[in-house]
Amino acid sequence: MVKKTVHRRKSQGAHGTKKATKTSIAAAEAERWTCAFDGGATSDADSSLALVRSGINGHRLRIIDVHTGTQRSEHAGAAKICSVAWGRQPGAADKGSAHVLVAMGLQSGNVQLYSPARNAVVKTLEGAHVDAVVAVEFRGDALFSLDSNGVVVQWDVASGTAQREMKTGLSGACALLVAADAQRVAVASHRIELWDVSRAVRLHSWPGHTAPVHTLLWAADEAALVSAADTDRHVHVWDATPDAEARPRAVLTTDSPVSSVDVAASGSVLAVGEDGVLYAWHQIAVAQRSTDSTASGARRNAIGYTADGVVRVVSTATPTQSLPILRARFSRVGSGEDSVLIVRGGAVKPLFETLSLAGPDGQFERELVLNREPQGNLLLTSSRQTDAEQQLAAQLQVYSEKGASVTDPVAEGVRASQRAGNDDADESARAAQGVPTLADRIKQLSVGADTTDPANGAALAAGLRLTAGTLVRVLVQSLHTADPEMLETVLSNASRPNIVRDTVLGLPTAYVLPFLQQLFERFHATPARATQLLPWIRCTLALHAAYLTSIPSLVPQLAGFYQGIEARLETHGRLLRLSGRLELANTQIRARCLYEKDHERQARAAMSLPMKPAAVYREADDSDDAGPADTEPPTPV
Fold first, then answer.
1. Helix, strand, or coil here: 204?
2. In this structure, are residues 40 and 332 in contact, taking their beta carbons and an 8 Å threshold?
3. Which of 111, 197, 262, 622 could form a cystine bridge with 270, CB 3.0-4.6 A?
């Protein structure tokens, strides 16, 4: 574990709190993960974290060692993983890692069992769900799964068959909680329902939250439920006894939406907000309810109970910069309140740390501030360089001004005027001979000129723009001298695919990694420049892949770029849905416009035609009116 250095101080009021929580990456890093700790399921203490991250061809399941922060194994699949849970193989008596399983609920409706020891999927459970499996949980040799349509399935892990199927009818279900005896299950969407498994009967229902519930936990020996929902700044504690009330037993308030929750055996509650702050309540979820106060003596306002303790992490370099906490867990050993495991950093390289929340009196510290060094930019090389990185740095020549000399401004001005006169004479002589002047050459060799300009188009047709070989020299010089303007001049040729490819192909290998770092820095600083930067990044990674794979610790240096790509991909789905809605609205508008235009055209056509009578009535003659009835029948003989 990381040795902790704790700095405790008293509360400085709202002003100090706001200054400590201001950060530009807190919202992005506090995004709710699809993850699960193995503590309590496969071992007494947390030793591994199963974390789902999106990859190039699908989701990836990473098994991370909590003690060292290193990755133990990784599974890459084409299917989308919606939920994970730790368990053990049926019949395994010992708690060795060889019998550990990780259940993955997939978007396709199947459940896969992954073995970290074998680094392979050992079994697939299929045929019971038709919707996405949003929650999975082990109970002994059985596995419970829940899909988004509210169907709960109990699986026999040994045979891989479904033993029981229960349709709750809860549309949009997203959370599942199974009792220790596997006889009761709690299912939640916006509301929470408690069901009897053997009889398939609903025992109780609570109104829940205004948003989908993402966390359901037992408390007080399964006599209470703790729930948290998306975009909700409240954690609800519900009474789960047979004579339970429909209203929550306690409402715990935070300053930002809750991203994760954990409950100790003693009833203490942890909640991590999207602002990266950890909130703690001491023994708030207890078995007996008191109308006047709780077991912790938490302060209650008009909304609910405020936290007994607040934990923040700030940067040692910039005290006003907050380092967000992403996850927090009580220790699964003993009472579980002696130590708390917090996760910070990022999904690419999470940092784990244990700390104690209790003070000398056994109560939680009112405000606990941890001073930590910020996690460096993973795109840049760290101070601990490997041998290969040191050799690469030795190949780069650093620009220096040691040989520069200071000149006299007056003398320099006299010499400049003399050179100007000579240059004018030389320019006139060259112009008379038909030789292009320096200004003409600069205009001809302009890099990144607008090709839509007729003059520039003619120059391009004449081959007067910089070639790939010239761009390689300019690019090397810009990386040599760290000249941003010269580098921007080279990058402005992104619209010329052949030039980009030839320039990257001719770039010396010693400058490949520095060039990528410059591209990544600009990509993170200004994401709107992706159209200009991505052609260069794509060509560099593709053409120099063999060299890049030989560089040690390349993955941590590219991790920040992966995070940026993943962040853009996560918003892509929302933009597609918005595009679909806008396209539907535009289609309706166009259809109505066409209908109105067609109706107006028919009206104008009808008005232009001569009017004709619909019916004509003529008065008949008297002879025509006489019928056969007026004539007398002939007299028979």
1. strand
2. yes
3. 262
Whether residue 514 is predicted with pLDDT greater than 90 in this model: the reply is no
Residue 566 three-state SS: helix
Convert 481-543 into a string of H (helix), E (strand) and C (coil): HCCHHHHHHHHCCCCCHHHHHHHHHCCCHHHHHHHHHHHHHHHHHCHHHHHHHHHHHHHHHHH
- CB proximity list for 480: less than 8 A, separation 6 or greater: 396, 397, 399
Task: Work out the burial of residue 387: count CB atoms within 10 Å of its CB; fewer than 13 is exposed, 13-18 middle, 19 or more buried.
Answer: exposed
Helix axes 484-491, 530-543, angle to 10 degrees: 90
List pLDDT tens digits, range 84-134: 999 988 876 665 666 899 999 999 999 999 999 888 999 999 999 999 999
Element (H, E) at 342: strand 340-344
CB 572 within 8 A of CB 580: no
Helix 554-608 × helix 512-525 angle, to 10°:
50
CA distance 326 to 309: 17
* Helix residue ranges per DSSP H, 249-373: none
**30 Cβ contact list (under 8 Å, min separation 6):** 259, 272, 273, 274, 275, 276, 324, 326
Do the beta carbons of residue 472 and residue 507 sit within 8 Å?
yes
SS (H, E, C) 5-58: CEEECCCCHHHHHHHHHCCCCHHHHCCCCEEEECECCCECCCCEEEEEEECCCC
More confident residue, 13 or 279: 279
Question: Pairing mode, if any, of strands 120-125 and 6-8?
Answer: unpaired
CA angle 115, 89, 74 (to 5 degrees): 10
User: What local confidence, expressed as pLDDT, does residue 149 receive?
Assistant: 93
In this structure, what DSSP letter does residue 630 have? Answer: G
Helix or strand holding residue 570 (H, E): helix 554-608
Q: What is the pLDDT of residue 105?
A: 95
- Cβ neighbours for 327, distance < 8 A, ≥ 6 positions apart: 33, 35, 260, 272, 342, 343
- Range name among 95-99, 343-347, 368-372, 505-509 with the lowest pLDDT average: 95-99
**pLDDT (tens digit per residue) in 404-462:** 555 555 555 556 656 655 655 665 665 565 556 555 655 555 444 444 454 444 444 43
Closest CA to 95 of 86, 83, 103, 104: 86
**First-to-last C-alpha distance (Å) of the chain:** 138
Look at the pTM and tell me if it is higher than 0.85: no
List Cβ neighbours of 164 (8 Å cut-off, separation of 6 or more). 153, 154, 197
SS (H, E, C) 72-138: EEEEECCCCEEEEEEEECCCCCCCCHHHEEEEEEECCCCEEEEECCCCEEEEEECCCCCCCEEEEEE
Type of residue found at 262: D
Residue 89 amino acid letter: Q
Average pLDDT, the chain: 77
Tens-digit pLDDT profile for residues 311-323: 999 998 888 888 9
Other Cβ atoms less than 10 A from the Cβ of 183: the count is: 13
pLDDT tens per residue across span 469-489: 678 888 888 888 888 888 888
- What whole-number distance in Å separates Cα of residue 74 and Cα of residue 121? 11
- ∠ CA 377-325-236, nearest 5°, is 155
Three-point CA angle 26, 29, 31, nearest 5°: 110
